[in-house]
Amino acid sequence: MHSEQILKQFLDELKIQSSDPLNLDSEKFFKKQTGQSEQILISRNVGKINKRNTEQQRTIVITSENLYNIDKKTIKRKIQIQNIFGVTVSRSSFEFILHVPSETDYHYKSHENRDIILFYLSIALKLKNKDGLKIYLVDQEDLQPFCQHQKISDLKKQVALHPKSKLLFLYPNDFQLQYINMQNQPTKSLTLNHKITVLFVNDKLKFRVKLDDYDKNAIISNGSLTRIFLLSQKTDRQKVLVLKTIRSTDIDVDLMEFFLKSYEKEPFIEQLELCIRQTELIHFLFKFVKGGDLFAHLQNVGTFTESQAKYIIAQVGMALQSVHEKGITYGDLKPENILVDEQGYIYLTDFGYGKLRVYQEFKKQQNINFSLEYASPEYLKYGDLTRMSDWYSMGILLYELLIGISPFYNTNKDVTIKLICQGELHFPKGIPISIECIDLISKLLQQDSSTRIGFSNDFKEIQAHPWFSEIDWVELKQKKIVLPYIPTIIEGTLIQAQYIKLEPLKDDEKGWY
């Protein structure tokens, strides 16, 4: 395979691209010095520290073959990737040293670019089949004592002068989390509660994560297992996230970590940005969805038109389909667990992050925090929770969007259970509903799950129902459709008070420790 194809394939696997914001690839002075098959991985400006401890502006370029040190438009040094022995990194400053045996080391400093440079260096080494990027992690701010500014004829002696600290090997595939957690290792002065481990980061090029980077601002709502907080970044108050925290004893942590390793962004699933473990606590940080939840919208409008409901249900169906394809039952569908963005597109929330509701087909599970009127007959009778239970709940949701109340609602819970398990489905007179819609709801709410629509071929069977005939599924998945229901959003206002009600924090809820 051609070297360019190999690099592209590897970057695609890592879900990143080459990063050349300085456009060195188009500079004639640089192209004259590179090989025909040489490809830029990254270019960044940094500070180079000389032996007199003076900082000078330089540019680093890492290609598939070499690392270049550039002063303006002059290449001062060209180092073959395979000759880089390792890197010393300071935990107390933003300095780092590239160690090059048989040559001289390079001492650099960069607040913005150090970590991403090291990540791409690990990629270049991987392309050369090297054994990962060797990193020496030290606590000193000034790395001058670790830098060899002069060549030493005895290579073994030069290598022996490298830092006497723990040596770590980092590889591109797991570089990010290992590097972040390496930086987050607590010092002896910190208490146990300050120890954090980052389990997931959605941004592949984010290499610094600390809980102290975020402020808790308010409570958005109360979930089944936890309060849900609104966070903001200290450096940019307009960048907000949603926080859900649970105790590690409430979930299967191994299962959760397995799930996070295969996490992929889905168009209609709430987007996880960070997952951080703080001793016995697990913090989930999600992208903030400005429109609030569907329950607030239902309260606001009373009922939706059939066209509006159709597009909401179509998105819910695609979200559930993606969940089911992973062998997972969602298990808690209700308006409160569906978020709505500014364009009217929806996101399932509370997915897999409460009790981490992961169930194989036909597995029994008793301790679900269901909204009773959305529970399926097979769950209430036998404790069976399968993908067919999700389709039953979607039928209840569709009915409620059109009628304004669930079909078996009763203030007496025992009566509600009896109606779900034994009652007949009725549609009130005076509310116009098409024959196709009534047919779909009836097929979704079949008592026997084996006769329920979706049993044979999951959502593909439901998609084929005549009620959905007008929907362009590809356009909808790509979010290219102007939807029939779009929330009323006040421009320039972060929190839409008509959809999101904030509660003030108590003193003991404001901090992290």
UniProtKB/TrEMBL annotation:
Gene3D superfamilies: Phosphorylase Kinase, domain 1, Transferase(Phosphotransferase) domain 1
Chain ranges of the Protein kinase domain: 214-468
Source organism, top-level taxon: Eukaryota
Domain spans labelled AGC-kinase C-terminal: 469-513
GO molecular function: ATP binding; cytoskeletal motor activity; protein serine/threonine kinase activity
Keywords assigned by UniProt, alphabetized: ATP-binding, Kinase, Nucleotide-binding, Serine/threonine-protein kinase, Transferase
PROSITE patterns with a match to the protein in the record: AGC_KINASE_CTER (PS51285), PROTEIN_KINASE_DOM (PS50011), PROTEIN_KINASE_ST (PS00108), TH1 (PS51757)
Domain TH1, chain residue ranges per copy: 1-181
This protein's name: Protein kinase domain-containing protein
Pfam families: Myosin_TH1, Pkinase
GO cellular component: cytoplasm; myosin complex; nucleus
